[in-house]
Amino acid sequence: MEFDHSLTPGSELGTGEAMHAFMGELFPFNRSLTGEGVRSTLAALGRRLPLSVVETPTGTQVFDWSVPPEWNVREAWIETPDGARIADFAESNLHLLGYSVPVDATLSLGELRDHLFTHPDPELVPYRTAYWARRWGFCMSRRQLEELREGTYRVHIDATLEPGSLSYGELAIAGRDEQEFLLTTYVCHPSLANDNLSGIVVLAALAEALSAQPLRYSYRFLWSPGTLGPLCWLHNNLDRLDRVEHGLVVSCLGDPGAFTYKRSRRGADIDAAAEYALSASGLAHAIRSWTPLGGDERQFCSPGFDLPVGAFSRSPADAFPEYHSSADNLDFVRPEALLESLQMLLRIVEVVERNETYVNRTPYGEPQLGRRGLYRPVGGESSSEGALLWVLNLSDGSRSLLDIAQQSGLPLEELRSAADALEENELVERVTRAGLEQPSGR
Length: 442
Ligand code: ZN
Fold this sequence. Notes:
29% of the residues lie in helices and 23% in strands. It is built from twelve helices and 20 strands. The strands form five sheets. It has an eight-stranded mixed beta sheet, with helices on both faces. A four-stranded antiparallel beta sheet has the order 5-4-9-6. The longest helix is centred in the last third of the chain and has 20 residues, at 335-354. It is elongated and about 95 Å long. Zinc ion (ZN) binds at residues 189, 195, 317, 324.
């Protein structure tokens, strides 16, 4: 049985509506770098997938970083001189500056203003954090700020910053090979839909779909708070990073924008696979070169690790106006965009699963194909004489079927059918990481 990128009937998250509904369930949690909001999110994933949650205690040294105190919030609000409660955390967790220290104080409007954050759009509440500074603050719309009158304000933040841990969730799906495909996203944004929840639910749906498939690679899924989460995972897995043969950091998968693929730092098969899948889909997309700016790929592709990890999104995080604001809500994310993103990821996985590299075993002249019955459709209708000749000619152990697809313009499926037929006839041999494989003889 071979990998099939069509969605398995009955997979619970296999529709745009189901993923969107799961986002609605996760939306209220107060996700941050640490804390109960992250754990609630991982617990919700854990009810669908056999996830393990890994905790790294406060104070643990992780490369150049140290896990900070755990942040949890009970309530937070501002009371106006009229006694009205505004910027209430209970209404939206975006109102509270992430990692605010506890405070209960009265102060003038002038003093309060130093702790208030607004968005360039006067109607929107921004999303702001201060993980590494001991401070407090509130976020509100500029319109609301402009309406505040002089007088005495009370601010109340009932929060704790105490020894605890950073939590990430990990899921392994075993394939035939030990070599792994790493799929990862962040879980540190509070009530924001596209920039965060879309990636969380699409990866969950992908994990569910892959669990029901025969797989060549093993798959490892990671849901972790941004930057420090991947660093904790890398730190915990230093002795097994050489198993990572392909990787994708995913984010922002529910907006109506076109797909964007950002190449890995080192250049890798995942780049060729993603670019092939996107191009073959005929859908609008953009390919970006590696830059050291962006999301968690900055850690996976830092020079010491330099893993073969690219980044996959629709509109990149900073390229849609709703980014990091109250407008990035459940209405902004489209079920059909979530589904299309899931289908594209499945297609990329399929390309990775189907790609192989071969060596021509009879490179001196062309082998006589007619004698072997290969001069007619073999291995399915898509196999053609042209594909046989391309595979024979370019299979020198260094060029994969994806490389041959790029050079020949032939579809990967057709080249793979040709390669299967040639392999059956012992005319090519598959190259594995360890070297040449024995002819399969199947
Ligand atoms: Zn973000």
